[in-house]
Structure formats: C-alpha cells, structure tokens
Amino acid sequence: MPARPVPEPDRISAEKALIRASVGERMGALPQELYSIAGTALLDRLKPELVEAEGTIFAFASMPSELSTWPTLEWLWEQDIPVALPRVRDHVMSFHAIAGPWELERGVFGILQPPASAPRRSPSEASLIIVPGLAFTRSGLRLGRGGGYYDRFLSVRPPGSRAVGVCLDLQVYDELPVQERDMPVDALVAIPLPS
User: Could you give the number of structural domains in the chain?
Assistant: First the structure.
C-alpha cells in the first residue's frame, strides 16, 4: 500500500521544526563572548540607519543565545533616540517606550521586556523595526521561534516603516519553508562570526 502524501501545512511545519532545531543547536554551541563581539559589529552596521530614522526605533532585548542587541540599545539610549521594546502578554505582543535597561523585567521565556506600566507605542510610530529571527534568507524571508508574534506585528506596520532582520551569518539560508502568514523583512543585516 503506498504511503499517504503528507499535507502541505504539515510538511512545512516539519521542515520549520528541523531548521529551528539545527539553528538552536549551532547557536547553543557558540562561546558566549562571540554574541557580544558580534553585537558591537551589528551596531556599526546599523548606525547609519539609526541616525537617519525619524521617530521611534522598535527593537528587542536579545537573549543570551542570540546576536546581542545590547550595544545598539545602549547607544540609542545614550543618543536619546526613542526606543520601544516588545512585551508579550496573553499571546499578544505590544511595544512600549523604554528609557533604559533598569526599566526591564523578565517576561515570557525569561526574555527582558518593558513593564505593563511603560507607555505603549502604536505600530504607526515605528520608523525602523529591528527584527529577531532564527533563520533568514538574503531576500528577507524569516523563520521565527514559532509564536507568530512578529508575523502578526509586521502585517500591521505602517507602509513607511522599515523592518530589518538581524542575525549571525550562520543563520542565513538559501531558502526557507514559508506560508502565507509568514511576513518578510525589508532588509537583512547578517554579521559574520568573529574569529
């Protein structure tokens, strides 16, 4: 008896799970200091766009096992450039203005996030959105952690905003399995692993 074909959504979900596991394994094997060194390189690459952006920069507080956004966040705060970071509650992601790291608290998955009392920012206020991901293609396709938070946010962002994915170059793939709900980024900044 021939095997039944795997439905397309199930096949794509299985391919995504394999990529997530592979990237997670490779990222977990890297020495912690490489993330910080690469984070400084990320700031150097992003600075021209950060300077030219008008309005609030929507960014994220990186976790220990991903390209560090802390040099970028600290630079933005030093320059008094408005920054909003994501907060997740009840499976909904919203962005809130933050003046510095002392305002952050641990949220879902232990990720640092703004408190509920921090001023909420509308997607319409975003000029530049710095987007995390587990994997990207050079053309901007993105694979997240599976919650769909950024896909939902990117689907309602204003037309004039610019979404930039950030990652290490080991997270870049030639192609990724995507579905209609998977939102791409406008540009990608992939940082080579420091030697």
Answer: 1
